[in-house]
Description:
The protein has one domain. Helix content is 77%, strand content 1%. It has helices at 3-31, 37-58, 65-88, 94-102, 104-115, 122-139, 147-169, 175-196, 205-233, 236-243, 245-257, 264-281; strands spanning 118-119, 292-293. A two-stranded antiparallel sheet has the order 1-2.
Amino acid sequence: MTADHNRRFWEWAFISVTAFWGWSFSAIHAALNSLSDSSFNTWRFFFASISILPIVLRRSTHFTKKEVGWGMTTGMALFLAFLFQTKGLNYTTASNASFITGLTVVITPLLSWLFLKMEIMPKQILGAIIAAIGLALLTLTELNIRRGDTLVLICALFFSIHVILLSKASKLSDAVNLTFTQLATVSTLSALQALFSNELAFPDTNTLIHSVLPIAIIGTALGFFVQTNAQIASSPNKIALIIVLEPVFGGLFGYLLAGDRLSMQNWLGAALIIVAMLITELQFGTRKTAVSLKP
Length: 295
């Protein structure tokens, strides 16, 4: 498999992951009716870690200090992103939170340029702007600014930091070891948060089977393993753009499975996000990589 085919394979695999994330909105919402957000994240990432553990133990690849360090660092960023998102949701609407979280697509290229010294291509800027407009049309129903919006904006910043850190860590670490350490870190920090707030509880059987386990194994263990591999070959800017597809799939599954109604504005927003994806794939003139490193 050539490098370009390998990149496309993992990018399409990650698109499939975002489709599952979009579907999982309803399952997470149902789980949070009986579990606190910290308890849900504790068990979500705990079972995700456990599902990978047999693979880790059967392999001859040992953990290095660098892999553990990168795993804990990316895990910390991911934990903080989920922490600020769930806290922000208590003080703002779901549509505002979805839009602001999606601003990762705009923040990530700026952080890539600032910290990784990556040159931002014009088509990436155009794609990010179109995706942000599409996201607004897809998710926003009102323009009231709430205090929770600030918390969710911090969440978007940490999601962008996570993408940037994982982009570098994935090229220096074994994908399985990095994924396991990252997930175990989030589970541990979430458990400490739940214990500190006296909220730690085990999910009931129905919640465990229909929400926690499928989201842990498919959406978390497999999902972040795929993202780690995708970031080995793809740019952080492209990864951020793929992540924005999550609310598109969420709206589509809500329309197909839950009877949600989508307005013309919503459909237009979804279409613009897809157009933004296509723009970043276009080649103008001489073939170039999506992001080039400055000398």
